[in-house]
């Protein structure tokens, strides 16, 4: 808050302004009314309407207000600002950033018209002195303006919109380390409900008296990593029981899959088999995908919303073809 308190008592030109107190550590000392002071911290003289108090404005001895001159008195000519006054006025009135001509890789070359941020800020180190939180916010906010617009990023899945109430729920829970399920049981219960909603939405083979098994993740990349590991461990355990080699697993995907599938294959030592796309058909062909499946295939990845075009792949056809092949090959 910024709170103003009216002060009483006789005022003079040299009397400090004690009527306004800011909830900030930068404005703790009284400010001189006439703008006098030492150093760069001197405030700009207050001139209502651009006229100096000495040129026709008078202060009331009982109120900390400025009283206009009598109507019959002509307005004096506007005084030209002294040297340096415009600089101080700009520093007090504007928060402006500009590109610095100094090219330094180790400093953030963003200077604000404020006496608190006149020096370059180190890029990779903590600064020696703090700056106002408003200035820090503005510096980071201005840099982020160089990012792309997520709503226009058609190569990802961040173009959707949520109601503001969803944003409020997220921000209200952002400080919860909800992996600690004993500490946050309600959040865990809400997660389990969402898992079951998604399972029923995609017709998972669960009975009415059963609950789906799943987990919330930070995003689709983490979900793919965990799902891929589950497929790999299940396949390895089955191969061990059968006394067969289990060191060369593979997955089958279309060439249009997200890059996180390639990361999974590289991180967890799984061969990646990609179905090439064809002219006019920019999703995975289910027939070609099933042809690539062998005894070392741990899963076939289908996409509901291709990265390239947003198309849904033929999941049902793929599932029917895989079921038929499993019956033939065991």
From TrEMBL:
Q: What is the protein name for this chain?
A: glutamate decarboxylase
Indicate, by first and last residue, each region the UniProt record lists as having compositional bias (Low complexity).
33-51
* Region Disordered, residue ranges: 1-85
Biased region (Pro residues) positions are: 67-79
Per its UniProt entry, what is the enzyme's top EC class, as one word?
lyase
> Which SUPFAM superfamilies does this one have?
PLP-dependent transferases
> Where on the tree of life does the source sit, at the highest rank?
Eukaryota
Q: Does the keyword Lyase apply?
A: yes
Protein species of origin: Panicum miliaceum (Proso millet)
One GO CC annotation: cytosol
* Xref: Gene3D superfamilies: 4.10.280.50, Type I PLP-dependent aspartate aminotransferase-like (Major domain)
Provide the GO biological process annotations: L-glutamate catabolic process
Q: Which family does it belong to?
A: Belongs to the group II decarboxylase family.
Q: List its EC numbers.
A: 4.1.1.15
Sorted keywords for this record are: Lyase, Pyridoxal phosphate
What cofactor does this protein call for?
pyridoxal 5'-phosphate
